[in-house]
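Thread amino acids onto this structure.
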């Protein structure tokens, strides 16, 4: 059972990124990609610190920084159409790449939910970017965790612009209201406190 597997993953995997597993993935346009999780050794090579603005700093550079997310034609998990205007009207969008089979992804989602409720929509919005092909599994997990922030599917364009650059999940990106991916990102899992510090720093810069 998938739910049993999720519980085991949460209990046994560290909050550093899914490890030592490869899974073939497909988006709603039948475009496939493969996500390979980083090993613990790879994660430990990149120690993170916070700068004076609260931004989490690592040795790893954001491979999609500066990317303008355009020509998006996807849906959310409920089937509603989503395009590039999804970023308009929000100073910062937290875009979290995740999968149901990734323990650290599942572990951090309730904290994302909690933080999402502390900001006005015009300041910060949260979006999950689903790296899964089974809608039922996703919906079951969202219901189990009481996650309410929107979840969108990785269409061909989002796969080409974002997903293919990462061989692990979770990954958290930050996008401005014009659809531009910001330099700051979180490669691997994060916490409520770290996320709040990063968002505070970004909003203070605007």
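Threaded sequence (206 positions):
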């Amino acid at each position: 059972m998938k739910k049993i597997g999720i519980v085991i993953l949460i209990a046994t995997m560290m909050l550093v990124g899914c490890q030592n597993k490869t899974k073939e993935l497909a988006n709603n346009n039948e475009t496939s990609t493969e996500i390979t999780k980083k090993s613990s050794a790879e994660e430990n090579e990149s120690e993170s610190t916070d700068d004076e603005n609260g931004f989490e700093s690592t040795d790893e550079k954001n491979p999609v920084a500066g990317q303008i997310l355009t020509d998006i034609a996807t849906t959310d998990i409920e089937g509603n159409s989503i395009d590039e205007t999804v970023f308009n009207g929000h100073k910062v969008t937290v875009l979290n790449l995740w999968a149901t089979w990734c323990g650290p992804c599942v572990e951090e989602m309730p904290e994302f939910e909690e933080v999402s409720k502390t900001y006005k929509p015009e300041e910060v919005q949260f979006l999950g970017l689903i790296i899964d092909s089974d809608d039922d599994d996703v919906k079951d997990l969202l219901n189990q965790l009481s996650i309410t922030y929107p979840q969108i599917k990785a269409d061909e364009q989002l796969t080409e612009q974002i997903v293919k650059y990462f061989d692990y999940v979770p990954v958290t990106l930050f996008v401005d209201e014009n659809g531009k991916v910001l330099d700051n990102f979180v490669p691997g899992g994060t916490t409520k406190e770290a996320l709040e510090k990063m968002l505070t720093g970004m909003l203070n810069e605007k």
